[in-house]
Write a structure and sequence with these properties.
276 residues, 3-stranded antiparallel beta sheet, single chain, alpha+beta, 12 helices, elongated, 21% strand
């Protein structure tokens, strides 16, 4: 029978390394007779078992985080998803999501990010480990990168939505402007930056919807095609970021607002991630 003594300091050390609960850490150390590497491996195996059992669960809660690099030329937005709002609002969970986002800024793809080293294990392994610790399915559901002359960000209250926006130049007032446009995208959920970003299938669908409505109104068939195409202007205004009414001043569009910051400034891109 083992005479290994497991101290509170040992348990705390393992907890710090893995993020597992105190009792789980103590049990793992007892079972491994104080062997930290074996204890960590056992905790990960527990996580893998839980992950397998919960693989078919929906993970629509969690935390959406956006971070930007030091020179404001690149950013990443991710969602760390879990199953319940209770876990998603937990301070430790949001802290982990933020740490992962700050790590993700170094990678161009979700695949490279998941395969990368994160404090001695891969990000993918960390997610499995945390599934075991928390008891819920944990995953990176969204991963979006954005680069440009100036990148700004916004995280909506409660970490439900995170947005990155790109401006054409780093001018005076760019940071506030980029944040305001990111808030616009968070609130209004545009489908594209501008008309050119709307795919052909979406445009064709909108034209058909307009045609059906015009027929119901009794419009002559010969006129319907042109009238329907004309209605696309309203669709683009409502659904493309730069053409939307600016939420802080509906008397101007987002493009007009940006031009109040600098006459030559434009919005060149955005990325939006959200839970649910």
């Amino acid at each position: 029978m083992s005479t290994i003594t497991i101290t509170a300091a040992d348990v705390n050390k393992l907890r710090t390394i893995t993020g597992a609960g105190m009792m789980d850490c103590k049990k793992a150390l007892v079972e491994s007779e104080g062997d930290f590497d074996l204890a960590i491996e056992n905790l990960r195996k527990k996580g893998q078992k839980v992950a397998a059992n919960r693989s078919d669960r929906e993970s629509t809660e969690g935390a959406a985080i956006a971070v930007v690099n030091a020179d404001k030329t690149s950013g990443v937005a991710i969602t760390l998803n879990c199953e319940t709002d209770f876990v998603g609002k937990n301070e430790g969970f949001v802290k982990l999501a933020t740490e992962l986002a700050n790590h993700a800024i170094n990678f161009d793809t979700k695949e490279a990010f998941l395969a990368s080293d994160f404090n001695g294990i891969t990000v993918a392994e960390k997610l499995i480990e945390q599934t075991g610790v928390i008891g819920e399915k944990i995953e990176i559901a969204s991963f979006e990168r954005l680069s440009g002359a100036f990148i700004g960000s916004y995280i909506h209250a409660g970490n439900k939505i995170a947005v990155l926006t790109a401006l054409s130049a780093n001018v005076t007032g760019a940071e506030e402007a980029a944040r305001n446009v990111a808030m616009q995208a968070a609130a209004m959920n545009p489908i594209a930056l501008d008309e050119a970003g709307v795919d052909a299938d979406t445009i064709a669908k909108e034209i058909e919807i307009a045609k059906d409505l015009l027929r119901q109104e009794g419009k002559a068939e010969a006129m319907i095609e042109n009238i329907a195409k004309g209605k696309l202007g309203r669709f683009f205004k409502d659904n493309t970021l730069v053409n939307q009414d600016y939420i802080k001043d509906s008397s101007m569009s987002v493009t007009a607002y940006i031009r109040t910051v600098d006459a030559n400034l434009t919005v060149t891109g955005f990325k939006r991630v959200a839970l649910g």
